[in-house]
Amino acid sequence: MRPAGFAAAFALAAAMATPHAHADSIVYKCVDKSGRVEFTDVNKAGCKPLDLPGYIPAPPQAARSPAPAVNMRQGAARPPTPSPANFPRVDTGAQRARDDDRREILSEELRAEEKKLADLRRDFNNGEPERQGNEKNYAKYQERVANMRDDIGRAEKNVEALKREIANIRQ
Q: What domain count does the chain have?
C-alpha cells in the first residue's frame, strides 16, 4: 500500500471510530504538485472537503492537559479518593462479620480445589495414567495426558489464588 493510501485509510478509520460528530468539522484532502496526499482540517489551495460522518477533530494543543505523572515505584502515595457525604458507611462489627463470611467461603472453595487437585494428581499417576478402552490410538492417549497436565496446572493456580485472597482479608 502506498503511503498516501495508508494515510487515507488511517484517516478514514479514525473518522469512523469516533462516536459523535460536529457539524462544523471539515476534513480536507489536499494533493500537491508531486501527487502527495495530505489530510487536514485547514483549507489550503488545491484541497477538497471530504464528507466524513462521525469525525471529531482533535482539541487544540492548549486545551489538552495531561494528567500529572505519579511514579508509584518511588514511594509516591496515591491521593486519597474523597467519598460523598451520603456514601453508606459500614460499622466495624458488620465489616468484620462480612470478612469472616468471605474467609469461610474462600476456605471452602480452597478445600474443594485442593481435593480436586489431589484427585487430578492421583489420576495423572506421575505422567503415566492408565489407558482407557477408547484410546487404542496412542495420539488420543497423549492428548488426554496433555489435558490432564493442563488441568493440574489450572488447579494449582486456583489454589495459589485462593490462598492469596484469604491472606488479603483483614484480620
A: 2
Q: How far is CA 41 from CA 15, 20, 47, in A?
A: 12, 17, 10
Q: In what order do the strands lie in the sheet with 37-40?
A: 37-40, 27-31, 47-50
Give residues with Cβ within 8 angstroms of 135, minimum separation 6: 141, 144
Is 76 inside a domain boundary? no
Q: 157 lies in a domain?
A: yes
Domain of 22? 3-58
pLDDT tops 60 at residue 4: no
For residue 69, the model assigns a pLDDT of 53
Q: Per the confidence metrics, is the pTM higher than 0.70?
A: no
Predicted confidence band of residue 6 (pLDDT cuts 50, 70, 90)? low
Residue 43: inside a domain: yes
* 45, 104: one domain: no
Residue 23: pLDDT band by 50, 70, 90 thresholds? very low
Helix (H, G, I), strand (E, B) or coil at 152: helix
Total Cβ atoms within 10 A of residue 11: 19
Q: Which residue has the cell 487430578?
A: 120
